[in-house]
Amino acid sequence: MKAIHVPMAGIVNYKKVAEKMAELIQEKGGHILLNHMVESITETADEVVIDTNHGTIKGSFYINCAGLHSDRIAKLANIKTDVRIVPFRGEYYQLKPEKRYLVKNLIYPVPNPNFPFLGVHFTRMIDGTVDVGPNAVLSFKREGYLKTDFSLRDMKDVLYFKGFWKLASQYMKEGVEEMVRSFSKRQFVKSVQKLMPDIQENDLLPGPSGVRAQALKEDGTLVDDFYIVHGNRSIHILNAPSPAATASIEIGKEMIRHLEKFRLVV
Ligand SMILES: Cc1cc2nc3c(=O)[nH]c(=O)nc-3n(C[C@H](O)[C@H](O)[C@H](O)COP(=O)(O)OP(=O)(O)OC[C@H]3O[C@@H](n4cnc5c(N)ncnc54)[C@H](O)[C@@H]3O)c2cc1C
């Protein structure tokens, strides 16, 4: 068998999904506080006190789903874990308009079971553009969307973590290959051609990038599933890999079950 055709595979405009969710939350009396950076957390026997850069919020419980910063939020709450978030940037190209006809759906490779990364794939976006990628390279900053982005604090967090060195020694070859693909379009195209031999270097235009919040364990294992720990009055989602956006409603329901199971709702 060379491929599996899944005709019902599709894509949504996730910005619109998020806007609709926000609308429904507000209709039901919820408040959405944007630009409130959590700076400290205190869990007491009766309540939770969260200090942000725009004031203090009190409640009976909270859910930490801070993505690239989820490990730091857990640390603020004195939650002990053996994981660290390591940022991996995924860089994309876009298919030039004249070649978009080649991609009529989503085209994915069979993933390598040793890695929680999908590998280079074709994504036909809602507006008809086609993203090609991503690779997966260590990002020198948690929100490092550009190759030149750098944060000393973020790099120290990676380099002082023994899990990173265990991972690096285990997968040196794969890591170097990804770096090469990041700087050499020719090498990138070679992996694209495994899925679609007709694609040539000049068919690909520079595209966007994203940064994946990858939880890494002290023993060098890349966490490839959800990783959830809880405090007395909190749940901490320390790894939420793709397709966590697609699955967000189900994940939300699961979090409610967690709250009930561990009697966090009082
Ligand atoms: C390149 C790429 C492609 C992907 N493609 C898909 C896909 O096709 N389908 C899919 O389902 N998933 C996809 N994913 C995965 C998906 O984006 C994640 O699984 C999902 O976003 C995780 O959601 P989250 O709410 O846990 O974290 P995030 O979406 O990362 O949200 C974390 C939030 O916490 C906030 N935050 C951080 N620190 C603080 C702080 N101190 N105080 C207050 N707020 C804070 C951030 O501002 C952010 O809003 C992709 C990911 C990447 C990187």
Automatic annotation (TrEMBL):
Record-linked InterPro entries: FAD-dep_OxRdtase, FAD/NAD-bd_sf
GO cellular component: cytoplasm
Keyword tags: FAD, Flavoprotein, Oxidoreductase
Cofactors named for this entry: FAD
Domain FAD dependent oxidoreductase: 3-255
Keyword Oxidoreductase appears in the UniProt entry: yes
GO molecular function: (S)-2-hydroxyglutarate dehydrogenase activity
Similarity section: Belongs to the L2HGDH family.
UniProt-recorded name of the protein: FAD dependent oxidoreductase
